[in-house]
């Protein structure tokens, strides 16, 4: 069971502003905060997300192939989270839309440090495709 996912940052105040805005879409705020680490979520709730300055003092780097998926209920929420991420310094990695034909709907973005995330939901597959 995943408790939370931690992503590295080289600018914790910038990461905090980004994740404060994204977490607000889920009705969540900060659940832990230290000088070099902030976690968003709800104690005892679903898995949370955290941003941290690396403990070893080396620069934070992006993991190739690593992505955090944020589940929402509707395509409109996918767009809202994606738009908030872009408005707060994120960059596009794939605009919101259907992926595949099995009802997977997602928008992909990177945080200001380059960590890849998506907002996704499952919707009824479009039977008119194909």
From TrEMBL:
In terms of superkingdom, the source organism counts as: Bacteria
Q: Which InterPro entries does this chain map to?
A: Glyas_Bleomycin-R_OHBP_Dase, Glyas_Fos-R_dOase_dom, VOC_core
Q: Where is the VOC domain?
A: 1-122
**PANTHER family in UniProt:** GLYOXALASE FAMILY PROTEIN (AFU_ORTHOLOGUE AFUA_5G14830)
Q: What is this protein called?
A: Glyoxalase
Q: Organism source for this protein? A: Erythrobacter neustonensis
